[in-house]
């Protein structure tokens, strides 16, 4: 039996699944039987559909086993899949790897409006990107001691954001009194394990 010692699944947004085939080849002289498959982290790396025949894989032929990768957290993820067969030592280990990406990204993380004269307005743009292959529901709010000095005044974001799409919020600072003012813009998406996404807002009224 011949199988790669490692398989890179690539990247996927957290809680979303990508699939890649693991190829198995019978290099022996007798029919090859895959007796069992197991993963050290079945929640993130899951053996799936196999084209390897239950009646045995003939000499010189290849078959595939679909491996699903569903990251449960951001960053590098890894596991090992073990194949049990009737050839040689009877056990083949394959190292699996992948990377979990943020499913929704809100940027920038903070906005400093600087100084603004009373009754004047300063605006800045916040971008929301949905990296998932599914639509998400969006909502936003501004909270904090000085929340009344900041407002969402435009942009392209609405109640939903399509799969692998982006939109914007226009956030405006309008001081009504002198002094430093702060607040937080919170953007919530569903589904999105990292929600809410917070953007710090600050400005000074002159």
Overall description:
With 206 residues, the chain is mainly β. It folds into two domains: 2-101, Immunoglobulin-like (Sandwich); 104-205, Immunoglobulins (Immunoglobulin-like, Sandwich). Helices cover 0% and strands 61% of the residues. It contains no helices and 17 strands. It has strands spanning 2-3, 6-13, 18-25, 34-39, 45-50, 62-69, 75-85, 91-101, 104-107, 110-116, 122-130, 136-143, 150-155, 160-161, 166-173, 179-190, 197-205. A five-stranded mixed sheet has the order 10-17-16-12-14, with no helix packed on it. A four-stranded antiparallel sheet has the order 1-3-6-5, with no helix packed on it. Strands 2-8-7-4 form a four-stranded mixed sheet, with no helix packed on it. The radius of gyration is 26 Å and the shape is rod-shaped. The N and C termini lie far apart (76 Å).
Search tags:
206 residues, mainly beta, Immunoglobulin-like, 2 domains, 0% helix
Summarize the helices and strands and which ones pair or pack:
Blueprint: E1 2-3, E2 6-13, E3 18-25, E4 34-39, E5 45-50, E6 62-69, E7 75-85, E8 91-101, E9 104-107, E10 110-116, E11 122-130, E12 136-143, E13 150-155, E14 160-161, E15 166-173, E16 179-190, E17 197-205
Parallel strand pairs: 2-8, 10-17
Antiparallel strand pairs: 1-3, 3-6, 4-7, 5-6, 7-8, 9-11, 11-15, 12-14, 12-16, 13-15, 16-17
């Amino acid at each position: 039996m011949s199988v790669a010692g490692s398989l890179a699944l690539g990247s996927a947004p957290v809680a979303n699944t990508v699939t890649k085939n693991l190829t198995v080849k019978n290099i022996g002289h007798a029919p090859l039987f895959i007796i069992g498959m197991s993963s050290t982290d079945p929640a993130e790396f899951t053996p799936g559909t196999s084209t390897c025949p239950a009646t045995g894989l003939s000499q010189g032929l290849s078959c595939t086993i679909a491996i699903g990768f569903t990251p449960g957290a951001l960053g590098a993820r890894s596991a090992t899949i073990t194949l049990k067969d009737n050839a040689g030592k009877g056990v083949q280990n394959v190292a699996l790897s992948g990377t979990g990406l943020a499913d929704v990204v809100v940027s920038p993380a903070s906005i400093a409006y600087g100084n603004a004269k009373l009754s004047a307005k300063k605006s800045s743009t916040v971008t929301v990107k949905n990296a998932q292959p599914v639509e998400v529901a969006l909502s936003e709010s501004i909270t904090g001691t000085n929340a009344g000095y900041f407002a969402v005044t435009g942009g392209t974001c609405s109640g939903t954001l399509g799969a692998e799409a982006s939109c914007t919020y226009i956030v405006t600072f309008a001081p009504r009194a002198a002094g430093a003012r702060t607040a937080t813009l919170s953007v919530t998406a569903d589904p999105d394990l990292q929600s809410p996404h917070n953007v710090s807002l600050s400005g000074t009224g002159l």
